[in-house]
Amino acid sequence: MIPGPTPVPEKVLQALGRHPIGHRTKEFQELVESTTKNLQWLHQTQNDVLTITGSGTAAMEAGIVSTLSRGDKVICGENGKFGERWVKVAKEFGLEVIEIHSEWGTPLNPEEFKKILEEDKKKEIKAVILTHSETSTGVINDLKTISSYIRKHNIALSIIDCVTSLGACNVPVDEWQLDIVASGSQKGYMIPPGLSFIAISQKAWKAAEKSNLPKFYLNLKSYKKSLLSNSNPYTPAVNLVFALDEALKMMREEGLENIFLRHNKHKLAMSQAVKALNLKLFADEKFLSPSITAINTETMDAEEFRKTIKNNFDILLAGGQDHLKGKIFRVGHLGYVNDRDIITVISAISKTLLDLGKITTKEAGEALLVASKNLK
């Protein structure tokens, strides 16, 4: 019950266990063609969706280095560990970074993006980089509104980390005219780590023609060229593509709306149970991610609490990062997670709190009751 790697369905594991095939064969090209079409369906786009053997960070770095140039001015939104990472990556490549901050646990303010973009009369800002679902804090940012302000600027690209939102909530790439959307296999895709995905608009491809940042393995032009023949510029993780094919078929069978509804009800069940257990949500309740719930422990050491649950119930929860270590724990509920999993983790948290004398049996029962109501 962490936000990645997430549980892997049996069908996907079986696909993963197939004997590898040559990545230049007709059989593999047919597989690439099939997965690409299903990736476009998942992203709700007609744009190119490329598959890279690497983590979500690889996809984000690829998006940055393939479309921008040294000295370009960019806006980076930072309200958690991953927003912070994109600031570091941008600075590492010599970009001029305008930082928009929000306290960890609170969403980015769209109006701050609007103000800076509207004041850029010379159109010097070349990109806006931000995280949609901030995994470190359980906050989802208002991408729809922020992207509308980016579009009005006309020049700036939107480079979006959708690692824990793609496949968990609605990210209509074409409707919102998002330029670069990065995600990773070990999250909503329900397969092991090792693949990342990047959707790219025509506007972003035009920007790529002028990019002068250093790149080789992560040069997206190479991937686009290979995709024309349903191939890959380098040796891909063949067995992970087998797994991807099976996972995407499962997702299509469930349907986008049902996937989004399932993640939303799990979010509501967890958040309402947390309140019933006299714990505090770390993030503002209006901006909770459908993928992960961060819980403030206050009077308890969160690391000891996680350790107890792992020892007693063999359930792994995520801890806090950086200055939040020991202060919060996080429950992942994205990907291959069902109602039983939600009830099980709430029961384990409740029993542990009971043993510590933090709650009564009545409160433990109330938590399960409110969770169950939200799972209907």
UniProtKB/TrEMBL annotation:
The keyword Transferase appears for this protein: yes
Protein name: Serine--glyoxylate aminotransferase
Domain Aminotransferase class V: 20-321
Any Pfam family: Aminotran_5
Gene Ontology MF terms: alanine-glyoxylate transaminase activity; L-serine-glyoxylate transaminase activity; L-serine-pyruvate transaminase activity
Any one biological process term the GO annotation gives: glycine biosynthetic process, by transamination of glyoxylate
Protein family according to the UniProt entry: Belongs to the class-V pyridoxal-phosphate-dependent aminotransferase family.
Binding site for substrate: 330
InterPro entries referenced in this protein's UniProt entry, alphabetically: Aminotrans_V_dom, Aminotrans_V_PyrdxlP_BS, PyrdxlP-dep_Trfase, PyrdxlP-dep_Trfase_major, PyrdxlP-dep_Trfase_small, SP_NH2Trfase/AEP_transaminase
EC number of the protein: 2.6.1.45
Highest taxon in the source lineage: Bacteria
Needed co-factor(s): pyridoxal 5'-phosphate
UniProt modified residues of type N6-(pyridoxal phosphate)lysine: 187
Enzyme class name: transferase
Coiled coil: none
Keywords: Aminotransferase, Pyridoxal phosphate, Transferase
